[in-house]
Every structure is written in structure tokens, then in C-alpha cells.
Amino acid sequence: MERKDRKRRKAEANLADVPPGTPATPQARGFSECPCPKACTLHGECLLCAAFHGRRHRPPRCLR
After folding, report:
1. What are the φ/ψ torsions at residue 18 (nearest 5 degrees)?
2. Is the predicted pLDDT of residue 1 greater than 90, yes or no?
3. Taking the model in full, what pTM does it have?
4. Contact 46, 22 (CB under 8 A)
5. Which of 11, 16, 50, 58 is the most exposed, fewest CB within 10 Å of its CB?
6. Short-list 22, 42, 24, 25, CA closest to 33
């Protein structure tokens, strides 16, 4: 559980760096389902996913 919590905390700490207008759901990004693995702790939470990956200047999996 610790690892999941750590990823979420890092994402929440960087949420302010997510650009305005970033799609918040997989459907808004043009996907019927989230392309992240089901085991991903941020599965389907696009804003947190963008915040987590954005801290290393990498796009989320669905934008790679």
C-alpha cells in the first residue's frame, strides 16, 4: 500500500503544474477506456497521471 500512496502523493504535489485544459478523463482524451495498465494506481485519473509524469517532463502513457 505504501508504494501506491507514494505515487498518489507525488502526483497530488504536482497537480498545480498541470496545464489548464488538460483532459481529465480517458473519454475526453479520445479513449473508451484508460490505456494505463489496470494495476496502475492512477488508472483512469488523467489529471493525476499527467501531474505524476509531468514532473519528469514525460507525457502520460496514452500520449506517448
Report:
1. -75, 125
2. no
3. 0.84
4. yes
5. 16
6. 25
Residues 6+ apart with CB under 8 A from 18: 47, 50, 51, 54
pLDDT digits (tens, 9 = 90+) for 37-56: 988 889 999 999 999 999 99
Q: Which amino acid is at 9?
A: R
In the block, cell 500500500 appears at: 1
Q: Are 23 and 44 in contact (CB under 8 A)?
A: no
- Greatest Cα-to-Cα distance within the chain, rounded to the nearest angstrom: 32
Whose cell is 508504494? That residue is 3
Among candidate residues 19, 55, 28, 25, the one with its CA nearest the CA of residue 43? 25
| Block residue for cell numbers 517532463 | 57
